[in-house]
Amino acid sequence: MKRKMALAAVLLSALLAQAQYRSAVWSPDNGDGTYTNPVINADYSDPDVCVGASGEDYYMTASSFQCVPGLPVLHSKDLVNWEIINYALTELYEGDEVLVEHFKTPRHGEGVWAPSIRYHNGEYYIYWGDPDFGVYMVKTKDPAGKWEKPVCVIKGTGYIDTTPLWDEDGRCYLVNGWANSRSKFASVLTVRELSADGTRPIGQPVIVFDGNGTENRTCEGPKFYKRDGWYWIMCPAGGVPTGFQLAMRSKSPFGPYEHKIVLEQGKSPVNGPHQGGWVHTKYGEDWFLHFQDKEAYGRVVHLQPVDWTTGWPVMGKKGEPVTTYKKPKSSSSTIVNPVESDEFNSPVVGKQWEWHANYDEKYGMPTAFGTFRIYTYKLSQGWKNFWEVPNLLLQKTPADQFVVTAKMRFTSKADGQFGGLIMMGLDYSALVVKRVGEEFQLVQMTCKAADKGKQQTEDVIATLKPTAKDEITYKPGIHEDIYLRLSVADSKLHFAYSMNGKKFTDCGTEFQMKEGKWIGAKFGFVSAETDAKADRGWVEADWIRVTK
Prior knowledge:
Layout: H1 2-19, E1 34-36, E2 48-51, E3 58-61, E4 70-76, E5 82-89, H2 97-102, E6 113-120, E7 123-130, E8 134-140, E9 151-155, E10 159-166, E11 172-178, H3 180-183, E12 188-194, E13 206-210, E14 223-227, E15 230-237, E16 244-250, E17 258-263, E18 274-280, E19 286-293, E20 299-307, E21 314-315, E22 324-326, E23 364-366, E24 372-375, E25 377-378, E26 393-396, E27 401-412, E28 418-424, E29 428-436, E30 439-447, E31 457-464, E32 468-469, E33 478-489, E34 492-498, E35 505-512, E36 522-529, E37 538-547
Parallel strand pairs: 25-36
Antiparallel strand pairs: 1-22, 2-3, 3-4, 4-5, 6-7, 7-8, 8-9, 10-11, 11-12, 12-13, 14-15, 15-16, 16-17, 18-19, 19-20, 20-21, 23-24, 24-37, 26-36, 27-33, 27-37, 28-29, 28-36, 29-30, 30-31, 32-33, 33-34, 34-35
Protein backbone atom coordinates (compact mmCIF):
# COMPACT_ATOMS: atom_id res chain seq x y z
CA MET A 1 0.00 0.00 0.00
CA LYS A 2 2.82 2.41 0.92
CA ARG A 3 4.50 1.65 -2.37
CA LYS A 4 1.28 2.41 -4.28
CA MET A 5 0.82 5.66 -2.37
CA ALA A 6 4.40 6.67 -3.06
CA LEU A 7 3.95 5.92 -6.77
CA ALA A 8 0.73 7.93 -6.84
CA ALA A 9 2.52 10.85 -5.19
CA VAL A 10 5.29 10.72 -7.79
CA LEU A 11 2.75 10.65 -10.63
CA LEU A 12 0.80 13.56 -9.13
CA SER A 13 4.00 15.53 -8.69
CA ALA A 14 4.92 14.88 -12.34
CA LEU A 15 1.48 16.00 -13.48
CA LEU A 16 1.68 19.20 -11.44
CA ALA A 17 5.14 19.93 -12.77
CA GLN A 18 3.88 19.43 -16.32
CA ALA A 19 0.88 21.66 -15.62
CA GLN A 20 3.12 24.50 -14.42
CA TYR A 21 6.07 24.15 -16.74
CA ARG A 22 8.31 27.19 -16.75
CA SER A 23 10.67 27.65 -19.66
CA ALA A 24 14.36 28.10 -18.97
CA VAL A 25 14.79 30.14 -22.15
CA TRP A 26 11.74 32.44 -22.42
CA SER A 27 9.09 33.42 -19.88
CA PRO A 28 7.29 36.74 -20.52
CA ASP A 29 5.98 37.20 -16.95
CA ASN A 30 8.44 39.45 -15.11
CA GLY A 31 7.02 38.49 -11.71
CA ASP A 32 6.38 42.13 -10.74
CA GLY A 33 2.99 42.70 -12.36
CA THR A 34 4.47 43.38 -15.81
CA TYR A 35 5.21 41.30 -18.89
CA THR A 36 7.68 41.50 -21.77
CA ASN A 37 6.74 40.77 -25.36
CA PRO A 38 6.58 38.35 -27.04
CA VAL A 39 4.24 36.50 -24.68
CA ILE A 40 4.97 33.35 -26.72
CA ASN A 41 8.38 33.46 -28.38
CA ALA A 42 7.49 30.62 -30.73
CA ASP A 43 5.84 30.17 -34.12
CA TYR A 44 2.11 30.40 -33.40
CA SER A 45 1.33 32.25 -36.60
CA ASP A 46 -2.01 33.94 -37.26
CA PRO A 47 -3.14 33.61 -33.62
CA ASP A 48 -6.75 34.07 -32.59
CA VAL A 49 -8.22 34.17 -29.10
CA CYS A 50 -11.57 34.03 -27.34
CA VAL A 51 -12.86 34.37 -23.80
CA GLY A 52 -14.20 31.11 -22.38
CA ALA A 53 -17.45 30.39 -20.60
CA SER A 54 -16.12 31.35 -17.16
CA GLY A 55 -14.85 34.74 -18.27
CA GLU A 56 -11.56 33.84 -16.56
CA ASP A 57 -10.22 31.49 -19.22
CA TYR A 58 -8.74 32.44 -22.57
CA TYR A 59 -8.22 30.06 -25.46
CA MET A 60 -5.91 30.55 -28.41
CA THR A 61 -5.39 28.70 -31.67
CA ALA A 62 -3.06 29.30 -34.61
CA SER A 63 -2.16 28.11 -38.10
CA SER A 64 -0.70 24.62 -38.24
CA PHE A 65 -0.62 24.04 -42.02
CA GLN A 66 0.41 20.42 -42.79
CA CYS A 67 1.69 19.63 -39.29
CA VAL A 68 -0.14 16.94 -37.33
CA PRO A 69 -1.84 17.02 -34.91
CA GLY A 70 -3.24 20.32 -36.12
CA LEU A 71 -4.95 23.37 -34.68
CA PRO A 72 -3.12 23.78 -31.37
CA VAL A 73 -5.32 24.86 -28.47
CA LEU A 74 -3.59 26.96 -25.82
CA HIS A 75 -5.04 28.15 -22.50
CA SER A 76 -4.29 31.14 -20.30
CA LYS A 77 -5.74 32.82 -17.23
CA ASP A 78 -4.16 36.21 -17.91
CA LEU A 79 -3.24 36.42 -21.64
CA VAL A 80 0.47 36.35 -20.68
CA ASN A 81 1.08 32.85 -19.31
CA TRP A 82 0.09 30.22 -21.86
CA GLU A 83 0.20 26.42 -22.00
CA ILE A 84 -0.64 23.93 -24.75
CA ILE A 85 -3.66 21.91 -23.63
CA ASN A 86 -4.86 20.16 -26.78
CA TYR A 87 -5.14 19.96 -30.56
CA ALA A 88 -8.50 20.27 -32.28
CA LEU A 89 -7.43 18.06 -35.21
CA THR A 90 -5.96 14.61 -34.69
CA GLU A 91 -5.30 14.39 -38.43
CA LEU A 92 -6.10 16.10 -41.74
CA TYR A 93 -9.05 15.54 -42.32
CA GLU A 94 -10.67 12.96 -40.07
CA GLY A 95 -13.81 11.53 -41.67
CA ASP A 96 -12.70 12.16 -45.26
CA GLU A 97 -10.74 9.10 -46.43
CA VAL A 98 -9.46 10.80 -49.58
CA LEU A 99 -8.02 13.78 -47.72
CA VAL A 100 -6.67 11.64 -44.88
CA GLU A 101 -4.67 9.74 -47.49
CA HIS A 102 -3.71 12.98 -49.28
CA PHE A 103 -2.08 14.38 -46.14
CA LYS A 104 -0.09 11.22 -45.39
CA THR A 105 2.50 12.78 -47.68
CA PRO A 106 4.09 16.01 -46.40
CA ARG A 107 2.12 18.83 -48.05
CA HIS A 108 4.30 21.73 -47.01
CA GLY A 109 2.34 24.97 -46.67
CA GLU A 110 -1.03 23.33 -47.30
CA GLY A 111 -3.73 22.46 -44.78
CA VAL A 112 -4.83 24.76 -41.95
CA TRP A 113 -4.50 28.48 -42.68
CA ALA A 114 -5.30 31.28 -40.19
CA PRO A 115 -8.04 29.83 -37.97
CA SER A 116 -10.46 31.68 -35.70
CA ILE A 117 -11.80 30.47 -32.35
CA ARG A 118 -15.17 31.51 -30.90
CA TYR A 119 -17.40 30.64 -27.93
CA HIS A 120 -21.11 30.57 -28.81
CA ASN A 121 -24.13 29.07 -27.05
CA GLY A 122 -22.11 26.80 -24.77
CA GLU A 123 -19.75 25.49 -27.47
CA TYR A 124 -16.33 26.40 -28.80
CA TYR A 125 -15.88 26.68 -32.56
CA ILE A 126 -12.77 26.86 -34.72
CA TYR A 127 -13.10 27.87 -38.39
CA TRP A 128 -10.31 27.90 -40.94
CA GLY A 129 -9.78 28.05 -44.65
CA ASP A 130 -7.90 25.32 -46.47
CA PRO A 131 -7.00 27.04 -49.76
CA ASP A 132 -7.21 23.78 -51.70
CA PHE A 133 -10.38 22.26 -50.27
CA GLY A 134 -12.61 24.88 -48.65
CA VAL A 135 -13.86 26.31 -45.37
CA TYR A 136 -13.88 23.94 -42.38
CA MET A 137 -15.21 24.00 -38.83
CA VAL A 138 -14.74 21.92 -35.68
CA LYS A 139 -16.50 22.37 -32.35
CA THR A 140 -16.56 21.07 -28.77
CA LYS A 141 -18.02 21.80 -25.35
CA ASP A 142 -14.59 21.35 -23.74
CA PRO A 143 -11.47 22.82 -25.44
CA ALA A 144 -9.26 20.40 -23.51
CA GLY A 145 -11.39 17.40 -24.53
CA LYS A 146 -12.39 15.73 -27.75
CA TRP A 147 -13.27 17.98 -30.69
CA GLU A 148 -15.85 16.76 -33.20
CA LYS A 149 -14.83 15.71 -36.70
CA PRO A 150 -14.33 18.63 -39.09
CA VAL A 151 -17.30 19.80 -41.13
CA CYS A 152 -16.77 21.21 -44.62
CA VAL A 153 -18.83 24.41 -44.52
CA ILE A 154 -17.97 25.60 -48.04
CA LYS A 155 -16.27 23.39 -50.59
CA GLY A 156 -13.90 25.04 -53.04
CA THR A 157 -10.49 26.62 -53.53
CA GLY A 158 -8.98 29.95 -52.58
CA TYR A 159 -10.78 30.41 -49.25
CA ILE A 160 -8.52 31.48 -46.37
CA ASP A 161 -8.68 33.33 -43.06
CA THR A 162 -12.30 32.68 -42.09
CA THR A 163 -14.12 34.07 -39.04
CA PRO A 164 -17.79 33.66 -38.05
CA LEU A 165 -19.93 36.24 -36.25
CA TRP A 166 -23.18 35.32 -34.53
CA ASP A 167 -25.39 38.40 -34.26
CA GLU A 168 -27.85 39.15 -31.44
CA ASP A 169 -30.72 37.92 -33.62
CA GLY A 170 -29.07 34.52 -34.07
CA ARG A 171 -27.99 35.08 -37.66
CA CYS A 172 -24.46 33.99 -38.57
CA TYR A 173 -22.05 35.73 -40.93
CA LEU A 174 -18.65 34.69 -42.24
CA VAL A 175 -15.79 36.91 -43.36
CA ASN A 176 -12.83 35.56 -45.31
CA GLY A 177 -9.79 36.49 -47.38
CA TRP A 178 -8.59 34.97 -50.64
CA ALA A 179 -5.36 33.18 -51.61
CA ASN A 180 -3.99 34.60 -54.84
CA SER A 181 -2.03 31.39 -55.42
CA ARG A 182 -5.32 29.54 -55.90
CA SER A 183 -7.94 32.12 -56.87
CA LYS A 184 -5.63 34.48 -58.83
CA PHE A 185 -7.03 37.47 -56.97
CA ALA A 186 -6.44 38.75 -53.47
CA SER A 187 -6.46 41.84 -51.25
CA VAL A 188 -10.23 41.70 -50.90
CA LEU A 189 -12.41 40.64 -47.98
CA THR A 190 -15.84 39.07 -48.48
CA VAL A 191 -18.79 38.53 -46.15
CA ARG A 192 -21.66 36.07 -46.59
CA GLU A 193 -24.42 34.70 -44.41
CA LEU A 194 -24.27 31.18 -43.02
CA SER A 195 -27.04 29.06 -41.56
CA ALA A 196 -27.68 29.82 -37.89
CA ASP A 197 -25.69 26.72 -36.87
CA GLY A 198 -22.73 27.90 -38.95
CA THR A 199 -22.51 24.75 -41.07
CA ARG A 200 -23.46 25.96 -44.58
CA PRO A 201 -23.74 29.15 -46.64
CA ILE A 202 -27.22 30.56 -47.25
CA GLY A 203 -26.10 33.77 -48.96
CA GLN A 204 -23.71 34.85 -51.68
CA PRO A 205 -20.37 36.53 -50.86
CA VAL A 206 -20.13 40.33 -50.96
CA ILE A 207 -16.83 42.20 -51.32
CA VAL A 208 -16.78 44.54 -48.33
CA PHE A 209 -13.20 45.82 -48.55
CA ASP A 210 -10.72 46.18 -51.42
CA GLY A 211 -7.06 46.90 -50.75
CA ASN A 212 -5.94 46.59 -54.37
CA GLY A 213 -3.91 49.53 -55.66
CA THR A 214 -3.62 51.09 -52.19
CA GLU A 215 -1.36 50.94 -49.15
CA ASN A 216 -3.82 48.32 -47.87
CA ARG A 217 -2.63 45.71 -50.36
CA THR A 218 -2.47 42.15 -49.02
CA CYS A 219 -5.41 42.75 -46.70
CA GLU A 220 -6.20 39.32 -45.28
CA GLY A 221 -6.60 37.52 -41.95
CA PRO A 222 -9.87 39.28 -41.01
CA LYS A 223 -11.52 38.84 -37.61
CA PHE A 224 -15.24 39.69 -37.21
CA TYR A 225 -16.78 41.35 -34.12
CA LYS A 226 -19.84 43.31 -32.94
CA ARG A 227 -19.49 46.20 -30.46
CA ASP A 228 -21.93 48.92 -29.48
CA GLY A 229 -24.05 48.44 -32.58
CA TRP A 230 -21.07 48.49 -34.96
CA TYR A 231 -19.80 45.58 -37.01
CA TRP A 232 -16.01 45.48 -36.81
CA ILE A 233 -13.51 43.75 -39.07
CA MET A 234 -9.91 43.82 -37.90
CA CYS A 235 -7.31 42.71 -40.41
CA PRO A 236 -3.67 43.09 -41.40
CA ALA A 237 -2.56 44.82 -44.57
CA GLY A 238 0.64 45.93 -46.26
CA GLY A 239 2.41 42.55 -46.27
CA VAL A 240 3.59 40.12 -43.60
CA PRO A 241 7.06 41.46 -42.64
CA THR A 242 6.33 45.19 -42.92
CA GLY A 243 2.57 45.62 -42.72
CA PHE A 244 0.18 47.05 -40.13
CA GLN A 245 -3.17 46.43 -38.46
CA LEU A 246 -6.44 47.87 -39.76
CA ALA A 247 -9.74 48.25 -37.96
CA MET A 248 -12.89 48.89 -39.99
CA ARG A 249 -16.49 49.46 -38.96
CA SER A 250 -19.95 49.55 -40.44
CA LYS A 251 -23.57 49.55 -39.29
CA SER A 252 -24.20 46.57 -41.61
CA PRO A 253 -22.24 43.31 -41.82
CA PHE A 254 -22.16 43.86 -45.60
CA GLY A 255 -20.65 47.34 -45.35
CA PRO A 256 -19.59 49.78 -46.55
CA TYR A 257 -16.78 49.96 -43.97
CA GLU A 258 -14.69 52.94 -42.95
CA HIS A 259 -11.19 52.02 -41.81
CA LYS A 260 -8.15 53.27 -39.89
CA ILE A 261 -4.65 52.00 -39.09
CA VAL A 262 -4.66 51.14 -35.37
CA LEU A 263 -1.23 49.47 -34.96
CA GLU A 264 2.03 49.89 -36.87
CA GLN A 265 5.74 49.59 -36.19
CA GLY A 266 6.54 53.27 -35.89
CA LYS A 267 9.74 53.75 -33.91
CA SER A 268 9.46 50.35 -32.21
CA PRO A 269 11.63 47.31 -33.08
CA VAL A 270 8.52 45.20 -33.78
CA ASN A 271 8.14 44.80 -37.53
CA GLY A 272 4.84 44.05 -39.24
CA PRO A 273 2.72 44.04 -36.07
CA HIS A 274 -0.60 42.62 -37.20
CA GLN A 275 -3.05 39.73 -37.61
CA GLY A 276 -4.50 38.45 -34.41
CA GLY A 277 -7.48 38.58 -32.09
CA TRP A 278 -9.16 41.14 -29.82
CA VAL A 279 -10.69 40.26 -26.45
CA HIS A 280 -12.76 42.22 -23.95
CA THR A 281 -12.20 40.86 -20.45
CA LYS A 282 -14.58 40.55 -17.49
CA TYR A 283 -12.50 43.26 -15.82
CA GLY A 284 -13.43 45.75 -18.51
CA GLU A 285 -10.03 45.69 -20.24
CA ASP A 286 -9.32 45.25 -23.95
CA TRP A 287 -6.33 43.42 -25.41
CA PHE A 288 -5.04 42.35 -28.80
CA LEU A 289 -2.84 39.32 -29.53
CA HIS A 290 -0.92 39.43 -32.81
CA PHE A 291 2.17 38.03 -34.47
CA GLN A 292 5.55 39.40 -35.46
CA ASP A 293 7.46 37.72 -38.30
CA LYS A 294 10.95 36.75 -37.08
CA GLU A 295 12.01 34.85 -40.20
CA ALA A 296 13.70 31.57 -39.22
CA TYR A 297 12.05 31.65 -35.78
CA GLY A 298 8.61 31.99 -37.33
CA ARG A 299 5.79 34.29 -36.27
CA VAL A 300 5.83 34.93 -32.54
CA VAL A 301 2.95 36.20 -30.40
CA HIS A 302 2.72 39.69 -28.85
CA LEU A 303 0.11 41.20 -26.52
CA GLN A 304 -1.02 44.83 -26.84
CA PRO A 305 -3.39 46.89 -24.72
CA VAL A 306 -6.34 48.37 -26.63
CA ASP A 307 -7.79 51.84 -26.02
CA TRP A 308 -11.34 52.51 -27.29
CA THR A 309 -11.70 56.08 -25.98
CA THR A 310 -11.63 57.56 -29.50
CA GLY A 311 -14.25 55.12 -30.73
CA TRP A 312 -11.52 53.13 -32.50
CA PRO A 313 -9.40 50.28 -31.07
CA VAL A 314 -6.02 52.03 -30.83
CA MET A 315 -3.50 49.30 -29.97
CA GLY A 316 -0.25 49.34 -28.02
CA LYS A 317 0.93 52.78 -26.89
CA LYS A 318 -0.72 55.33 -29.19
CA GLY A 319 -0.74 52.80 -32.03
CA GLU A 320 2.81 51.46 -31.62
CA PRO A 321 3.73 48.08 -30.07
CA VAL A 322 4.74 47.96 -26.41
CA THR A 323 7.77 45.98 -25.28
CA THR A 324 7.04 45.82 -21.55
CA TYR A 325 3.66 46.62 -20.01
CA LYS A 326 1.47 45.95 -16.98
CA LYS A 327 -0.24 42.57 -17.06
CA PRO A 328 -3.97 42.22 -17.67
CA LYS A 329 -6.11 42.06 -14.53
CA SER A 330 -6.58 38.44 -13.46
CA SER A 331 -7.31 36.29 -10.42
CA SER A 332 -4.33 34.08 -11.33
CA SER A 333 -0.66 34.56 -10.45
CA THR A 334 0.54 31.27 -11.96
CA ILE A 335 3.57 31.48 -14.23
CA VAL A 336 3.44 28.82 -16.93
CA ASN A 337 4.85 28.43 -20.44
CA PRO A 338 4.40 26.01 -23.35
CA VAL A 339 6.30 22.79 -22.66
CA GLU A 340 9.58 22.23 -24.55
CA SER A 341 11.70 19.61 -22.73
CA ASP A 342 10.48 16.03 -22.62
CA GLU A 343 11.57 13.09 -20.47
CA PHE A 344 9.36 10.75 -22.56
CA ASN A 345 7.93 9.15 -19.42
CA SER A 346 4.31 9.44 -20.57
CA PRO A 347 2.47 6.81 -22.67
CA VAL A 348 1.18 9.61 -24.92
CA VAL A 349 3.03 12.02 -27.20
CA GLY A 350 3.93 15.34 -25.56
CA LYS A 351 1.83 18.25 -26.76
CA GLN A 352 4.86 20.16 -28.02
CA TRP A 353 5.43 17.58 -30.77
CA GLU A 354 4.00 17.41 -34.29
CA TRP A 355 4.67 15.17 -37.27
CA HIS A 356 5.15 16.58 -40.78
CA ALA A 357 2.15 14.65 -42.14
CA ASN A 358 -0.76 12.49 -41.00
CA TYR A 359 0.44 10.00 -38.43
CA ASP A 360 1.13 6.37 -39.22
CA GLU A 361 2.00 4.03 -36.35
CA LYS A 362 5.07 2.90 -38.27
CA TYR A 363 6.53 6.39 -37.75
CA GLY A 364 7.05 5.71 -34.07
CA MET A 365 5.34 5.66 -30.69
CA PRO A 366 5.91 5.99 -26.94
CA THR A 367 7.26 2.98 -25.10
CA ALA A 368 6.69 1.55 -21.62
CA PHE A 369 10.41 2.03 -20.94
CA GLY A 370 10.46 5.83 -20.50
CA THR A 371 11.53 6.46 -24.10
CA PHE A 372 10.04 7.47 -27.41
CA ARG A 373 10.86 5.36 -30.46
CA ILE A 374 11.07 6.78 -34.00
CA TYR A 375 11.47 4.12 -36.68
CA THR A 376 13.53 4.66 -39.82
CA TYR A 377 11.44 5.99 -42.67
CA LYS A 378 11.90 4.26 -46.03
CA LEU A 379 13.20 6.98 -48.35
CA SER A 380 12.13 6.91 -51.99
CA GLN A 381 14.40 5.67 -54.73
CA GLY A 382 16.50 8.56 -55.97
CA TRP A 383 15.71 10.70 -52.88
CA LYS A 384 17.65 13.94 -52.51
CA ASN A 385 16.67 15.36 -49.13
CA PHE A 386 14.25 15.15 -46.19
CA TRP A 387 11.49 17.28 -47.75
CA GLU A 388 9.60 14.04 -48.46
CA VAL A 389 9.92 12.62 -44.93
CA PRO A 390 6.63 12.57 -42.93
CA ASN A 391 7.92 11.06 -39.68
CA LEU A 392 10.00 14.05 -38.59
CA LEU A 393 9.05 14.51 -34.93
CA LEU A 394 9.45 18.24 -34.44
CA GLN A 395 8.60 21.19 -32.22
CA LYS A 396 8.80 24.97 -32.55
CA THR A 397 11.86 27.00 -31.58
CA PRO A 398 11.16 28.56 -28.13
CA ALA A 399 13.49 31.57 -28.03
CA ASP A 400 16.17 33.49 -29.92
CA GLN A 401 18.89 31.68 -27.98
CA PHE A 402 18.66 28.16 -26.56
CA VAL A 403 20.42 24.81 -26.30
CA VAL A 404 18.83 21.42 -27.01
CA THR A 405 20.43 18.25 -25.64
CA ALA A 406 19.08 14.77 -26.34
CA LYS A 407 20.08 11.43 -24.88
CA MET A 408 19.33 8.65 -27.35
CA ARG A 409 20.24 5.22 -28.60
CA PHE A 410 20.28 4.43 -32.27
CA THR A 411 19.55 0.82 -33.15
CA SER A 412 20.39 -0.36 -36.64
CA LYS A 413 19.31 -3.55 -38.39
CA ALA A 414 20.91 -2.78 -41.75
CA ASP A 415 23.64 -0.78 -43.41
CA GLY A 416 22.85 2.86 -44.22
CA GLN A 417 20.23 3.42 -41.51
CA PHE A 418 20.60 6.67 -39.57
CA GLY A 419 18.96 8.85 -36.93
CA GLY A 420 19.58 11.92 -34.81
CA LEU A 421 18.72 15.59 -34.27
CA ILE A 422 17.59 17.98 -37.01
CA MET A 423 16.74 21.67 -37.47
CA MET A 424 14.23 21.56 -40.31
CA GLY A 425 13.20 24.30 -42.74
CA LEU A 426 13.54 25.23 -46.39
CA ASP A 427 17.20 24.67 -45.55
CA TYR A 428 18.07 22.11 -42.89
CA SER A 429 20.94 20.55 -41.02
CA ALA A 430 21.02 17.33 -38.99
CA LEU A 431 23.53 15.57 -36.79
CA VAL A 432 22.97 11.82 -37.13
CA VAL A 433 24.45 8.45 -36.32
CA LYS A 434 24.71 6.41 -39.53
CA ARG A 435 25.55 2.73 -39.82
CA VAL A 436 28.41 1.87 -42.17
CA GLY A 437 29.25 -1.82 -42.11
CA GLU A 438 29.61 -2.92 -38.49
CA GLU A 439 30.42 0.58 -37.23
CA PHE A 440 28.70 3.95 -37.07
CA GLN A 441 29.64 7.31 -38.48
CA LEU A 442 28.68 10.63 -36.96
CA VAL A 443 27.49 12.68 -39.93
CA GLN A 444 26.26 16.23 -40.49
CA MET A 445 23.61 16.20 -43.21
CA THR A 446 22.80 19.60 -44.67
CA CYS A 447 20.61 20.82 -47.50
CA LYS A 448 19.98 24.28 -48.90
CA ALA A 449 16.74 24.78 -50.83
CA ALA A 450 15.30 21.42 -49.83
CA ASP A 451 11.93 22.62 -51.12
CA LYS A 452 13.50 23.01 -54.57
CA GLY A 453 14.70 19.41 -54.63
CA LYS A 454 18.39 20.16 -54.06
CA GLN A 455 20.71 17.33 -53.06
CA GLN A 456 21.79 17.23 -49.42
CA THR A 457 25.48 17.03 -48.50
CA GLU A 458 27.02 14.69 -45.94
CA ASP A 459 30.13 15.47 -43.89
CA VAL A 460 31.62 12.65 -41.80
CA ILE A 461 32.71 13.91 -38.38
CA ALA A 462 33.82 10.75 -36.60
CA THR A 463 33.73 6.96 -36.70
CA LEU A 464 32.14 5.33 -33.68
CA LYS A 465 32.36 1.79 -32.41
CA PRO A 466 28.98 0.34 -31.41
CA THR A 467 28.30 0.61 -27.70
CA ALA A 468 26.34 -2.65 -27.81
CA LYS A 469 25.64 -5.58 -30.15
CA ASP A 470 22.87 -8.17 -30.09
CA GLU A 471 24.31 -11.60 -29.38
CA ILE A 472 21.47 -13.47 -31.07
CA THR A 473 21.86 -14.78 -34.61
CA TYR A 474 18.32 -13.89 -35.72
CA LYS A 475 18.25 -10.38 -37.21
CA PRO A 476 20.76 -8.89 -34.75
CA GLY A 477 21.08 -5.16 -34.32
CA ILE A 478 23.96 -2.94 -33.33
CA HIS A 479 23.46 0.04 -31.05
CA GLU A 480 25.01 3.45 -30.41
CA ASP A 481 24.33 5.31 -27.15
CA ILE A 482 25.07 8.98 -27.60
CA TYR A 483 24.19 12.52 -26.51
CA LEU A 484 23.53 15.02 -29.30
CA ARG A 485 23.31 18.78 -28.85
CA LEU A 486 22.34 21.77 -30.95
CA SER A 487 22.88 25.38 -29.87
CA VAL A 488 21.06 28.34 -31.39
CA ALA A 489 21.86 32.06 -31.24
CA ASP A 490 20.88 34.76 -33.73
CA SER A 491 19.36 32.08 -36.01
CA LYS A 492 22.73 30.31 -36.31
CA LEU A 493 23.12 26.67 -35.31
CA HIS A 494 26.06 24.70 -33.95
CA PHE A 495 26.24 20.98 -33.14
CA ALA A 496 28.07 19.03 -30.45
CA TYR A 497 28.12 15.44 -29.20
CA SER A 498 29.16 13.44 -26.16
CA MET A 499 29.61 9.78 -25.35
CA ASN A 500 29.04 10.22 -21.60
CA GLY A 501 26.77 13.27 -21.28
CA LYS A 502 29.46 15.24 -19.47
CA LYS A 503 32.14 16.24 -21.95
CA PHE A 504 30.78 17.59 -25.25
CA THR A 505 32.78 18.04 -28.41
CA ASP A 506 31.78 20.79 -30.84
CA CYS A 507 31.47 19.43 -34.34
CA GLY A 508 30.38 20.16 -37.88
CA THR A 509 29.99 23.52 -39.56
CA GLU A 510 27.84 26.49 -38.57
CA PHE A 511 24.38 26.43 -40.10
CA GLN A 512 22.21 29.44 -40.92
CA MET A 513 18.66 28.50 -39.98
CA LYS A 514 15.88 28.99 -42.49
CA GLU A 515 12.12 29.04 -42.02
CA GLY A 516 9.92 26.34 -43.54
CA LYS A 517 6.97 26.76 -45.89
CA TRP A 518 4.81 29.29 -44.00
CA ILE A 519 6.21 27.99 -40.69
CA GLY A 520 9.31 28.69 -38.63
CA ALA A 521 12.24 26.32 -38.47
CA LYS A 522 11.52 23.36 -36.17
CA PHE A 523 13.84 21.03 -34.27
CA GLY A 524 13.52 17.41 -33.24
CA PHE A 525 14.30 13.92 -34.46
CA VAL A 526 14.94 12.38 -37.86
CA SER A 527 15.20 8.63 -38.51
CA ALA A 528 15.46 7.22 -42.03
CA GLU A 529 17.10 4.76 -44.41
CA THR A 530 17.37 3.87 -48.10
CA ASP A 531 16.94 0.08 -47.95
CA ALA A 532 13.34 -0.70 -48.93
CA LYS A 533 13.56 -4.36 -47.84
CA ALA A 534 15.48 -4.19 -44.57
CA ASP A 535 13.92 -4.40 -41.12
CA ARG A 536 13.61 -0.88 -39.75
CA GLY A 537 16.11 0.60 -37.34
CA TRP A 538 15.10 3.22 -34.79
CA VAL A 539 15.97 6.17 -32.63
CA GLU A 540 15.19 5.49 -28.96
CA ALA A 541 14.93 8.97 -27.43
CA ASP A 542 15.47 8.83 -23.68
CA TRP A 543 15.02 12.56 -23.09
CA ILE A 544 15.40 15.95 -24.71
CA ARG A 545 16.04 19.11 -22.67
CA VAL A 546 15.89 22.75 -23.65
CA THR A 547 18.19 25.02 -21.63
CA LYS A 548 20.00 28.34 -21.81
